[in-house]
Design a protein that fits this description.
The chain is built from 11 helices and no strands. The radius of gyration is 51 Å and the shape is elongated. It is mostly helical. The longest helix has 64 residues. It folds into 3 domains: 145 residues, no CATH class; 112 residues; 58 residues, no CATH class. The model has no long low-confidence stretch (mean pLDDT 80). Helix 6 runs antiparallel to helix 7.
Length: 365
């Protein structure tokens, strides 16, 4: 377990195995912080991805990848901070790593905040879903209300037409009754020709009223059927769109709902994970230079010195080789044998050029 935490801290096991117990415990503590931060990242990412994919195995798989990524980043951050004799130099090299640690802390803490405040978030989401449901019903109703209102107006007109016709029939009835009683019309008591004429007019109007009632009732039934059909279409459309509203509980919706809750509890949770994430860096900055740091600095210094020596030797070797080459070529340039050979070769080349020029001119002529 101790060596595993050394590996998590990015420490050199060979150096640590020869260091004091306190140095071993310090590096193991740093490695443990890195490891458990990665575990928390795995849990946080797994939950966040579960809210997205709604599948346990997918969430575990991608959560494990995310946890390993955070583990590698934290291990890199901790292992690259070197103890120096200047505190400001140490702080300077730690600032970019602290910024990265803050970003990682935000990413890790947010999904866990979603889980911790799940009940409160569900309440906010329920209120939003209810509001969305009402808005959705109103928006869908706007598509059907004009048609329904028009049908209702037509039904009312048909009823008014029957009512008006009934009034006319009643008026004709009163007319022929008063004619028979002698209280109106000819003012003669009895059923004379005028009474008969008015009675026939009333009977014809009554028959028309009966036909009008049958016709309008059928029209009213048809229009009420259309209203019922529109109502069914409205209900079906509301029913089809409701699952979209019911499914409004994804990752972004939950984050927005979390932002509507009081910020102080979430802020303290963020501070907790920020402290966990930056703990290895802060501990390295605050801890004095120990045995492990001195040995590591000695090894790195030895390597640096060896590399500098090798570079210096290569530079000197190149310069010496250049001087020797210049001297060799200078000596060769002064040899008579080489001069005679070069003169002979130059003569042959000039002869070949003259012959080639002669043959070319001869072909042209």
């Amino acid at each position: 377990m101790k060596r595993f935490f050394w590996m998590c801290a990015g420490a050199d096991e060979d150096i640590l195995s020869q260091s004091s117990k306190s140095e071993q415990i310090k590096q193991a503590g740093i490695g443990g912080t890195v490891f458990f931060t990665a575990v928390m990242a795995f849990i946080a990412a797994g939950y966040a991805l579960y809210t997205v994919f709604d599948n346990v195995y997918t969430a575990i798989f991608f959560g494990l990848i995310w946890g390993l990524l955070i583990f590698n980043l934290d291990r890199f951050i901790v292992s690259t901070i070197k103890k120096r004799d200047n505190r400001w130099a140490e702080l300077g090299q730690a600032i970019p790593r602290i910024i990265l640690a803050i970003i990682i802390a935000v990413v890790i803490s947010k999904p866990l905040e979603l889980k911790i405040f799940e009940k409160e978030i569900d309440r906010v989401l329920l209120e939003e879903k209810n509001q969305f449901t009402l808005q959705n019903q109103e928006q869908i109703a706007l598509q059907y209300t004009p048609a329904v209102e028009a049908l209702k107006i037509e039904i009312e007109e048909l009823k008014n037409e029957v009512t008006s016709k009934e009034k006319d029939v009643n008026d004709l009835y009163n007319t022929y009754i008063t004619e028979a009683e002698g209280t109106a019309g000819t003012m003669k008591l009895g059923k004379g020709p005028v009474y008969k004429e008015k009675r026939e007019k009333h009977d014809a109007a009554l028959q028309e009223l009966q036909q009008l009632k049958e016709s309008n009732n059928q029209k009213i039934i048809d229009k009420e059927g259309q209203i019922a059909l529109l109502g069914n279409e409205y209900a079906q459309k509301v029913s089809n769109t409701q699952p979209i509203i019911d499914g409004f509980d994804g990752l972004m919706a939950r984050i927005n709902a979390l932002n509507k809750l009081p910020w102080l509890p979430s802020f303290f949770i963020f501070l907790l994970f920020l402290a966990i994430e930056t703990a290895p860096i802060i501990s390295k900055l605050l801890a004095p230079k120990g045995e492990y740091d001195l040995k590591l600095e000695n090894i790195e210094g030895s390597v640096k010195t060896w590399v500098a020596q090798q570079k210096d030797q290569r530079v000197k070797l190149l310069a010496t080789d250049a001087v020797i080459n210049d001297q060799v070529y200078q000596d060769i340039a002064e040899e008579e044998e080489l001069y005679a050979y070069k003169r002979k070769v130059a003569r042959e080349i000039m002869q070949l050029q003259a012959d080639a020029f002669y043959e070319k001119q001869k072909r042209i002529l």
